[in-house]
Amino acid sequence: MELAALILATVITAATPLVIAGLGEHVVERSGVLNLGVEGMMIMGAAVGFAGAVLLDSSWTGLVIGALAGMAMAAVFGLFALGLATNQVATGLAITILGLGLAGLIGQPFVGQPRPPLAPLEIPGLVAIPHLGPALFRQDAVVYLSLVLVLAVGWVLNVSRAGLVLRGVGESHVSAHALGLPVLKVRWQAVLFGGLCAGLAGAYLSLVYTRFWSPGMTAGRGWIALALVVFAGGRVWRLMAGAYLFGAILIAQLHAQAGAIGIPSQFLSMLPYLMTIVALIVLSLAGRRGAGAAGSLGQPFVPER
Amino acid sequence: MKKVVLGAVAALALAAGPAMAQQKLKVGFIYVGPVGDFGWSYQHDQGRIAIEKALGDKVETSYIENVPEPDSARAIEQLARTGHKLIFTTSFGFMEPTLAVAKKYPDVKFEHATGFKREKNVATYSAKFHEGRYVIGQIAGKMTKSNTIGYVGAFPIPEVVAGINAFYLGAKSVNPNVKLKIVWANTWFDPGKEGDAAKALLDQGADVITQHTDSPAPLQQAAGRGKLAFGQASDMSKFAEKNILSSIIDDWAPYYVERTKAALDGTWASKDTFDGIAKGKVKMGPYVNMPDDVKAMAVATEQAIREGKMDPFKCPVVKQDGSTVECKGGDKLSDEQVTSMNFYVKGIDDQLPK
After folding, report:
1. Which residues of B touch A7 (CB under 8 A)?
2. Quick check: helix, strand or coil at residue A261?
3. Pick from A3, A113, A214: CB nearest B37
4. B66: which chain A residues are within 8 Å (Cβ-Cβ)?
């Protein structure tokens, strides 16, 4: 492959966990719930998914188990934030801290065990496209799954009735409740979906991206996913674009260093975050008013009896 | 009545005196990464375990892992406040916080790894990793086919810069055409990013990767592409059995046991300790996946360094700009010059970030 194609291939793998985790949180926030526990759910997915993969000797099973572990953490969040209407910010932070600790404990026996890579899935025909073919169409299956997820979530949220209900619940839970919509049920489903995605993203990190488990290995990617949701401003395509932009700058700066172009590495390391801020400013200046976070984001809902 | 109470208090204090002396010595550790990084922090923790094994019930050890460098003062102070009398802070970035806390707790002994600032109650210690890096540099110089070697660095601090220079000088000594590409990850531990840095180097033509970050990710990425690499801080063979060439292993255990003993019997004094292959603080992992002549060369170099016949920074050392570095250590650079190194040697085609 040529250098540009190689870079593109790396960017795609770097962006994929961000896309998946961001997508889950996007749905959660559309339903009016703010779950700051993405990092915690992600690392649980990474640890439990890795453990499952080693014990059952199957990376695929590991990915599924990791996703379920993320969902279990989301269920704990839901129990408090939805069931007991606790403060969502505090609950989410608690989930992150709990997840980081618990994952370290669960992963302890698996530290330092290597895993074989996931075989890349070639898309016949397309992979033969000159230059870009191998980079785009010889990726692992999770990359394609993430793209399917983007389309599916975009469709459900924007076209389907279920999506309309979810957005309605997020916009104003009082009105939605008055209309007879099952606010808490919808939010539970969104929160569990968010956990599933975060868990899958975490398992992708430990099983495909780095292929070993190590405590703290998510290294803040859950927070980046959360930032991407803000960046997306309610639009799924923008979330994906943001993740890829972020990944692209991250990888490009490493290549710029390897090419010794003489820009301070500290500046280059800062670039992805700087670009995120710049993009946010540009988008918010250019964007329509009103298109942002869901109306009742972060407010607990207690149905009147 | 008052007198009696006072007397009682005095008696109590007297009784408490010897009891205190027999109390366990609490030894604390601050790690920059998780103990499970299988690299830097893992090896320090092996040293902590060695203290417990060697000194048994005379000591009690504890550690705080994943301590971010800018925020480390709180963690160090927490150990000092909870009765730890000997505290090891095991990353360069803990230097100023360690000194600041040491000032507030003059009766607590501190040991700071890889730093250069000492106080009455702050000792420093490091290992001559650069000796090991010279050996693996020679191996890399022999093994590269593209004559391009990739180097993943954490931060441009003297310890890492000296490692890069020693590595390059080693490679250059056996292969005059070798080129070094350097990428700074700007993190000690982020497997994803470290791996991406290695990928970038591989994509740009490097066929041997070496790293000065703490996780096995760069090694594993190289292995994934069928390229060669080295382990860092601990023997990382199991992560890439067919692609690892060797590892530089840090062995802190003897030093930690020695210093804890010194603290126990009251002979502890602040000093700087800087040794390498000769004292066994730096060890080389098995030399594998290489032809016999390369292995023989590596063994010979390691032995020569152990016997003091060879040094990576043998004078003259020439800087990038062509000027010769003043030789303060006899026929080689002094320890001080190595631990404060802030220049690349001639031949490295990159700029050192300032």
Report:
1. 200, 203
2. coil
3. A214
4. 215-216
Selection from A304, A298, A302, A98 nearest residue A191 by Cα: A298
Contact yes or no for B233/B246 (Cβ under 8 A): no
pLDDT tens for B307-333 read: 999 999 999 999 998 999 999 988 999
Lookup: tokens for A64: 């599924």
> Which phi and psi angles does B181 have, rounded to 5°?
-110, 130
Per residue in B108-129, pLDDT tens? 999 999 888 899 999 999 999 9
Which structure tokens are listed for A21?
């985790």
| Residues of the domain holding A94 | 3-111+146-286
Q: Kindly tell me the burial class for residue B43, based on how many C-beta atoms sit within 10 Å of its own C-beta (0-12, 13-18, 19 or more).
A: buried
Residue A207 · residue A65 · CB < 8 Å: no
Q: Which domains does chain B have, with CATH numbers?
A: 23-128+252-275 (3.40.50.2300), 129-250+282-309 (3.40.50.2300)
Tens digits of residue pLDDT in B1-55:
344 444 444 444 444 444 444 578 999 999 998 887 778 899 999 999 999 999 9
- pLDDT cut 90: percent of chain A above it: 54
| DSSP H helical ranges for A172-264 | 173-178, 183-204, 221-232, 236-258
Domain count, chain A: 1
The CA R_g of chain B, rounded to the nearest whole Å, is 22
CATH number at A197 reads: 1.10.3470
Helices (DSSP H) in chain A: which residue ranges?
3-30, 38-56, 59-78, 88-107, 133-137, 141-158, 161-171, 173-178, 183-204, 221-232, 236-258, 265-286
Classify each residue of B317-350 as buried b or exposed e, where b means 16 or more C-beta atoms within 10 Å of its C-beta. beeeeeeebebeeeebbebebbbebebbbbbbeb
Closest approach of B141 to chain A, Cα-based (Å)? 18
pLDDT at B8: 41
Q: Which of B33, B196, B206 sits opposite A14 (nearest CB)?
A: B196
